[in-house]
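Put briefly, the fold is written as integer tokens. The lines below illustrate.
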Amino acid sequence: MKFHAMNISRLFQQAILGSVFLFLMSSHLSFAQSVSEVVNHPVRTAQDRSLDAKRKPQEMLNFIQVKPGMAALDIFSASGYTAQLMALAVGPTGKAYAFNIRAFPALDERLKEHPQANFISVVGALNELLPAMDGQIDVITIINSYHDLVNINPDIQTMNKRIYALLKPGGMLIVRDHAAKEGAGQSTTKTLHRIESVSVVADFESIGLKKVAEGDFLKNPQDPKEEHSNKVNPPEGFILKFVKR
């Protein structure tokens, strides 16, 4: 049987399109399954799981879109709730760094009970983040603590410039925090432990990052944003994604 050249070309194009479609579908399904596996992984602690209803790890990971093999850095990681999620999401071919300015016994205990080669605790100075790793990080997370960083670091932009330097081209910064009232800026970071998202955008876009997305899964219309974030369950939050161009 003979085929005209046009028919062969059309069949070839259809085959290519079909392969691309199947690849995209399989990638999406694989990612969705991996997020579920991460959230339900037995290595996560009972304390982690008790925070899940408020912190929404599934929605957060879907927003970030972490991929296996990435290098991730969680700043002000404390006991490692987010860093543990990232370590599981990047898998054995990736790395997750949990950065604190002092040792956290709960983090040390986590890693003692479940040693993980790709999960690394780092203690250091905020303005000297991972000094030997410029251009090597795929994703940096600051979860519910940028307002704290503003409070304790009078030279916050020095730290922010280190974040920029650490990211690869195309690397992501994720900032999640408790929302302040419109117009509050950074005036309630100490009193209410809240910060206005527009002030966070201004800080990071001023050093060269570009805001590319904002999640809506932390909204709470019942929160008047007039009380300390710890007194509202849950406080309204925001989550922003920046990219290094």
